[in-house]
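LOG
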Amino acid sequence: MAHARGSFFGRRKGHKLRPHQADLIDTLLPHLAVDISAPAPAALTELFDDGIENVRLEIGFGGGEHLIAEAQAFPTTGFIGCEPYVNGMAKILTQIEAQNIGNIRLFAGDAAELLAWAPTRSVARIDLIHPDPWPKRRHWKRRFVQDATVAAMTRLLPPGGEFRFVSDIDDYCAWTLAHLMRSPDFAWLAERAIDWQQPWPNYTMTRYGAKAEREGRKAAYLRFKRLP
């Protein structure tokens, strides 16, 4: 299948990796990496060991705080973390090794290409937490949420599946609401203001989210359900 051409504009590498982190990139990551050059399996659960009942995707996991916590809380769920930034990948590999976590797989590339590769209705939930907002108007096309990615998520999520979005940038929250609300395939789950003003139950705050709170920026927590 031809892969949809996505839009990756982030930095792939920042600070120099410590020797052990570099070693994990070379030795552990190949065992956990999702290879989209190979044909997709009939079900994404096949990427994991036995006992995995469903699969979730986190796009741009940063330091991995939320992804690690979710994987530990839901041991029968498989998690695919997508992060093209090498330093973020090194951080999560360190945690996976230290805590012996077996239900995470990783993709070090463009999430749009992963979405195009994955089989239909194969992901129970997709999380996008504090993505790069690309605030300048000329860069809005670089935001992950676009009509094309909404259509891709429509294909991947079964009815009842969810897309969850967190951002402390008001403009990107409005942008995301506009894109999801004009899709006939999604419904915003908020019934009152508190539903989007506070995190959902058992949400793990990321390092970036904590920094935003300290600096007085309030995040919105948006949940969208895939309609039948």
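LOG (cont.) second protein
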Amino acid sequence: MTVRVLVCDDQALIRTGFATIIDSQPDLEVVGECGDGRAAVELAGRLRPDVVVMDVRMPVLDGIGATRLLAGAGVPDPVKVLVVTTFNLDEYVYEALRAGASGFLLKDAPPSQLLQGIRTVASGAALLAPEVTRQLVGRFAARIRPVEEVAETQLAPRELEVLKLIAEGLSNSEIAAALVISQETVKTYVSRILTKLDLRDRVQAVVYAYRRGLVT
């Protein structure tokens, strides 16, 4: 099946570049382009793309607000959003993920990462590169105020341990090594965590952990 993509960025050159890269692939198709978040919401409602590649800073409505309207809590038919950003905008990425984005990429990532990122998000998986998570979410942890300071009684001790490691940016293989368990076991724990906490994906698990003060 062809993955239908909507590209939203206020810089025409970047939009054109992304569209050219995406349309070069036989399994991907750009169905629309726009330059602000409000237009992205309107186009997504009309075109129903599989993935929206979303910039953060844009006029009329920024990428965070647009993401919240497309994929946020309570949206009946959410659209998968892949946020693109630069490190000097990284304080906004946490809010974008919290708003419902399925992942993020850096604008200077090679074309292969953009293409793989779109495919990953379209498949229903979360795109949260561990090495970027450490630099990004960790750097702004002090600004994220926990909503409550209670123990997570829903999770077993080992599940809570895995959740904390996910939030610290560790990949499944790194978690397996740290806890001396197999990667398959880690996958099982991750699945249980998402189910018990009613979370959509790994991205939401990271946000949940920071909001609950499980990681500082």
